[in-house]
Amino acid sequence: MLPVASLLILVPLIFAAVTFFTKTKKQAAGLGFLGSIATLGLTLYAYLNFDSSTATIQFFESIEWIPSLGVNYSVGIDGISMPLILLNSIVIPFLILYSWKEDREAPNRFYGLILTMQAAVIGVFVALDFLVFYIFWELTLIPLFFMVNIWGGEKRVHASYKFFIYTHVASLIMLLGIFGLFYASWQQTGAPSFDIRELVAQFKFFESSLLRDAIFLSIIFGFLAKLPVFPFHSWLPDAYTEAPTAGSVLFILLKIGGYGLFRISLPMLPNTGSPELIINMLGLLGTFSIVYGALVALRQKDLKRMIAYSSLSHMGFVVLGSAGFIALSVSGAMFQQFSHGLIMSILFMSAGAIQTTTGTRIINNLGGLAKRMPKLTVLMMVGFMASLGLPGLSGFIAEFLVFTFSYVNLPGFVLFALLAIVITAGYHLWAMQRAMFGVYNAKLGDISDINSLQVFSMGVIALLVIYFGWNPNPVLNMMITNSEAIVSLGAALGV
Amino acid sequence: MSGIIDSYIPVAIFLFVALVMPPMTMFMVKHLSPRSKAAGKYTTYESGSVPTGTARIQFNVEYYLYAIAFVIFDVEVLFLYPWATVYKGHGITSIAVAEMFLFVFVLLFGYIYLWKKGALTWVK
Amino acid sequence: MIPLGFYLGLAALLFSIGLYGVMTHKNGIRMIMCIELMLNSANLNLVAFSSYTNTLDGQVFAMFSIALAAAEAAVGFAIFMAIYRMHDNINLDELNILRW
Amino acid sequence: MPIEIPEFILPLLPWIRGTVGLSLVGFIFIAAMGAVWLERKLSADIQSRMGPCRVGKYGLLQLVADAIKLFTKEDLRPLNADSLLFNNANIFMISSVFLMLVAIPVGAVFINGVEYPLAVTQMDISVLYIEAMSAISIFGIFMVAYGSNNKYSLLGAFRNFARMVGYEVPLGLSVVSIAIMTGSLSIVEISRSQGLLWNIFLQPIGFFVFFVSLMADMGRLPFDQNESEEELVAGWITEYCGMRFGLGFFAEYIHMILGSFLVALLFLGGWNVPSFVANNPVLGLIAPTGFLLVKTVFVLMVIIGLRWAIPRFRIDQVVDLSWKKLLPLALLNLVWAVVLGLYLGA
Amino acid sequence: MVNFMLLAPEIAVAATSLIILLIGVFMSPRTKNVLGYLATLGVLAALVLTVQSLGTEAVIFYDTVSIDALSQFFKLVFLAVALIVSVASIKYNENSDHTEEFYCLVLFATFGMMGVASANDLILLFCAFELASLATFALAGFEKQNARSLEGAMKYFVIGAISSALMLFGISFVYGATGTTRIPAIAENAAFLAQNPIGLVAIVLLIAGFGFKMALVPFHMWAPDAYQGSPSVVSSLLAAGSKKMGFVAAFRVFILALPALQVDWQLAFTILAVVTMTFGNVVAVSQTSVKRMLAYSSLAQAGYIAMAFVVMTPMALTGGIFYTLAHAFMKGGAFIAAAAVVWMVTSQKTGDLITPDHLDNFRGLGKTMPLAALSMTVFVFALAGIPPTAGFMAKLLLFSSTIEAGMAWLAVIAVLNSALSLFYYARLVRYMYFLPPDGKKIGMPFQYAAALLIAVAGVLVMGIWSEPFLQWAMDAAQVLA
């Protein structure tokens, strides 16, 4: 067996390093593409060798790193991380293809950063040691910061700093929580360890419920701010909007907040001082994000900003599903992460294409684009429909699972959140109608459709959206296996 | 302890006398000497011409360099004194001799440095 | 025997005078003089303690500190001299290129 | 016949010694007057002149006449002088020589073969003490020069300063070399230890360094750059007149005499006499002191004679001599002393 | 007979400096470059000797010198700094007539710092402290024609001299109350000191004395000026080396000698640490001179390290000690990078010549001097505590141990500060990479490059392969426990 987990980090990282030293745009893009394809190959290899019927860690590797602190370099893949790795590995080659023909300065850094980002995100997904986890967690900041800061829109400086400081503070607070966990468990067992699974398992043995709450809350704060959900989201619209298209897509692929929720917070949740309260809080945050995101999206004039807020709304489903805390609602939340990554990639790519061709993103300045850009319109339609949860597309599966099964535990919240479906449908269709259909806005001049590479890359993703809408099992199976494992911990406690 | 203080009591007496003597002498002079006033008597002497400007002018920086060199080497001597007094008849070990040579040797580097840099030359 | 308190009192007084001087004077030379005063008050302390505890460490210490004070003054004067050549005065108040 | 000292006097003994010792001041004053006379006469002889001869036999009373003159001269102070410095400078010069005097033994008496040095006080660090006190005089000189606000004075004082600074170090180093040999910084001990062999023979280089440095320290020709009459009028003392000048002048001569004593004590064997002389009840009282005085006068005459043998150095030559010649020589001597000490100690 | 081999590193450093001084005066300015290599060799030799002697323990010279894990760790710190500085200074001193003085002073300063690290006696501690201080005073004012250098040096000198007077006065009380200057003996006899108000006076004076060197607020006034004004290589020595000397002295004096007064000094350090880190970070945000910004960030870092005195668990001490080494590489390297920029600005005559380290001069450094920009990025990210760098590991140890000790509030303050610090570090990175450059690409002098690479290697190795360093730091902390 190949050491797939390590290779998944190393291959993009090495390609990124080489890409940084390329001279021309062609070399950079080519190398980037090669790197992402290699990663995709590795991922497929891992996927094919993956046993989705068990919740245990597979492809496990561990090397001693700092023994005096109990730090090991240990990585592995399970049903929580596999779909997200898959998502990353699938989207990034197409992202590179999508931006193949764009002209920008310093292409070597651009593609290098994309690959670095991929490595960092996969690193977070495969890490089984808190220190390794945190290192990759922080590493994701750097490429995104640069992405926004170099190639972003007009307010890129402001947006990049806001994003950087905001999420960095959140991760530091999470780090404090990790420290608390580490020392409390050290005291408990007498041996230092940074192993995620062991620390999570030790969590329930801590005596002081105050300590447990403090640790849990500070860790989950980091995840929620990264996700983000309602009160911690203020970096999101700026960063998503100001980022270049590839940056926005990378933001979408940054599923580490939700991943942390499933990997670390949910198994700990039943053992906190007052799980009921926390579940209700999470449900509240999720619901609020759904409704708030949808409402604000409705008001947006900027197409990209609207998509950003709709992304916030979608993230609410992740939290709501997690808070539902039964196997199917949690796997719904996981699936939401996966499908959201695909859908939003299409949407941001479309928005990017519209901006580059027409020079504007303001919905009111567009109009009738379907006549001049039929291919784009079709693809964007697929994205929008999936985003609003049309049955037969992947978005529907996720939302359906979340709504249906969260209702068991959190009926009130779900009923409230159902409101948002209407609004979501409303703003999506309204935006579509204004931007793509109707009379062509002559001011936009003579514009042409997206190029064939873009069609190809967006088309493949759209096809995947449709495919997973009909047959979610390839990823849903492993999600359910793991969700059951997570939830069974809580079931024992009667939550 | 008291022996040390005792040996300084005469010093105190002498110091007192030394402090008193000049003022007393000058007091005597004041009463013995004649007095006559003339403007020219109270100017400073500048080879007979009228003094110009103040005498409190800046002086050559070389004085400073000498002062520093002096301080350095005088302190060296300061450390040598206690060592010198115990050199004989106190069973001093060869290591103390070696250490003192090392000390002087290190200072010698400084000395050569000063010399080569011209700090010991009056007119550069 | 003179009580230890007298030495300590004198030393404290000298030290305070030195400290006051350092804080109020802006002239470099005066500051060095005040610092020397502070160092010497510490030496006085050391020697007084040495005689009252019947240990020699204090006297040895005082000797070293005298030597160091001399070296310190040498370095300080060198710096002030260079400043004087540039600014024609050594008022600390008037040296304010570097701030905030 | 041991002298019985009553119990109650013991604590007062230092006071008594100090007070009695003040008589030494008188002795030294007279000696200083003698030295001035000696210098004039000697100089005259060297230059085939008469020298003082009007007042008293061989002009012996010339100094008394000078003193009367000084006492009755008007005390002038320039208007732009700094009176605080100007008026009090003398105190420093006089203090310097007085305080040196306290520690210098001017001889010794042997009573029943037991040695009693004729020093006001005996300290175990007397050499160091004397060096320190000798250096005080420069404060006085500088106060005069700066206080009188005269350019010649200040120039003289600065030269004085440069010279003093240069020669303190070799002086100190040569004293250290002697201390190594003796194992003590007490002048009495050092003098006593030369019973067999004078230090001048053991450390000829050291003697040379010490003697030259001492000359410079005292400001004797050829090292009187601070006065250098030909260029600086009278150097630092230009504005001093009358008795003020007299006091400074006197302090210088006392300094010279004390310096001669030091040379005799440190290098020329001190008051050591063969033991049969010392044990003689009569000779023991006189001979050691007399022997020391003879040596001192000899040194004094050498110092005076050198004035006419060597012209005054330029200031740069003075500084060169101290830093570039005497200092290495002194270090060489130190090494020599250490080696000698090891050899003699073994 | 004393085993002189125990002092071999010190002897190597001192001998090198004397040899440099001696042969330097006989050389012409053209050939003096050799001296830099000689100094580097000497420092390297000392470094090798120190590493070789790791693990030995001895107390020599009548109990005045203590060779233990703590002293050896700090010797490594100082020698590492000296290595970086002397390599970089080869370029700085090119064609200078004062090369030998520069290296002599650098090595003397290092020698003094090493002496402080291994002092087991307050006399030696004070003397070595002063030796290092005096050498650095002179170094700070090394550019005699540069008004900034002189002003920085003067402020440094005046405040440094006051601090040494305060320290000496404090030491005199400690000596008076315990009757000894040996550190272990002081700890034994400290009972009287603990009951008497004199103890408090001594603590205040000592904290003030060491605090100046550590540049803790409010004793920091000199630091920004001196760091900004001094030649950059010297700033590197000051920030990375001389500051650590204050810490090792404080470790020795407070923790080893005065544990009886722990309550008092712990309280003082709590306040100082919090104030220092907050002040440093807040002020650093608004700086336009990079060296000054680094100076304020250095204050903040001192505040973090001072947390070790507050927490006082073995883990925290390990963290503090580890932090000093990490900070030596990070800050030392950052100042060397600044030195490279100053060199670029002055040799190319482009940009703001009056403040050659102005932020504007860092514009587009990624294009003009890619290596400097890249390593500067590594350093500032390390300073901000971003993994996988030494700074991250150091903060991890320090902050986590604070939580362990139940001082979550302190950890939160520290963490928020460290987040704030990212703001100005990121700004520097932005200037280097995202703003257009003024000039063309410039060949980087290999001496600067070498120094930067050493520092980068240090930062990364300590971050990635931390185990041996951690072990050393733990051993060192063991001495204090």
From TrEMBL, chain A:
Chief location category: membrane
Intracellular or extracellular location(s): Membrane
Claim: Secreted is one of the keywords in the record: no
UniProt-listed InterPro entries: NADH_Q_OxRdtase_chainM/4, NADH_UbQ_OxRdtase, ND/Mrp_TM
Keywords tagged on the record: Membrane, Transmembrane, Transmembrane helix
Membrane topology: Multi-pass membrane protein
Keyword Transmembrane helix belongs to the record: yes
A UniProt-annotated Pfam family: Proton_antipo_M
One of the record's GO cellular component terms: membrane
One MF annotation (Gene Ontology) recorded for this entry: NADH dehydrogenase (ubiquinone) activity
GO annotation, biological process: ATP synthesis coupled electron transport; electron transport coupled proton transport
Residue stretches making up the NADH:quinone oxidoreductase/Mrp antiporter transmembrane domain: 127-424
Annotated TM spans: 6-22, 29-48, 80-98, 110-128, 134-151, 163-184, 214-236, 248-266, 278-298, 307-330, 342-364, 376-398, 410-430, 450-470
PANTHER family: NADH-UBIQUINONE OXIDOREDUCTASE CHAIN 4
NCBIfam families per UniProt: NDH_I_M (TIGR01972)
Family: Belongs to the complex I subunit 4 family.
Protein name: NuoM family protein
UniProtKB/TrEMBL annotation, chain B:
Chief site of localization: membrane
Cross-referenced Pfam families: Oxidored_q4
Keywords, sorted A to Z: Membrane, Transmembrane, Transmembrane helix, Transport
4Fe-4S in keyword set: no
Compartmental location: Membrane
Membrane disposition: Multi-pass membrane protein
A single cellular component GO annotation: NADH dehydrogenase complex
Transmembrane stretches, start-end: 12-29, 63-84, 90-114
Protein's UniProt name: NADH-quinone oxidoreductase subunit A
Protein source organism: Methanosarcina flavescens
UniProtKB/TrEMBL annotation, chain C:
Membrane topology: Multi-pass membrane protein
Keyword flag GTP-binding: no
EC number: 1.6.5.11
Principal place of residence: membrane
Bilayer-spanning residue ranges: 6-23, 60-84
Tree of life domain: Archaea
UniProtKB keywords: Membrane, Oxidoreductase, Transmembrane, Transmembrane helix, Transport
Pfam families associated with the record: Oxidored_q2
Root EC class: oxidoreductase
Protein name per its UniProtKB record: NADH-quinone oxidoreductase subunit NuoK
Species the sequence originates in: Methanosarcina flavescens
From TrEMBL, chain E:
Residues forming coiled coils: none
Keywords from the UniProt entry: Membrane, Transmembrane, Transmembrane helix
Top-rank lineage group of the source organism: Archaea
InterPro entries, alphabetized: NADH-Q_OxRdtase_suN/2, ND/Mrp_TM
Keyword Acyltransferase in record: no
Subcellular location: Membrane
Transmembrane segments: 6-27, 34-53, 73-90, 102-117, 123-142, 154-178, 198-223, 244-261, 267-290, 302-323, 329-347, 368-386, 406-425, 446-465
NADH:quinone oxidoreductase/Mrp antiporter transmembrane domain sequence ranges: 119-421
Entry's Gene Ontology BP terms: ATP synthesis coupled electron transport
GO CC annotation: membrane
Pfam name, any one: Proton_antipo_M
The keyword Phosphoprotein is annotated on this UniProt entry: no
UniProt topology in membrane: Multi-pass membrane protein
Record GO terms (molecular function): NADH dehydrogenase (ubiquinone) activity
NCBIfam families: NDH_I_N
Protein name: NADH-quinone oxidoreductase subunit N
Protein's organism: Methanosarcina flavescens
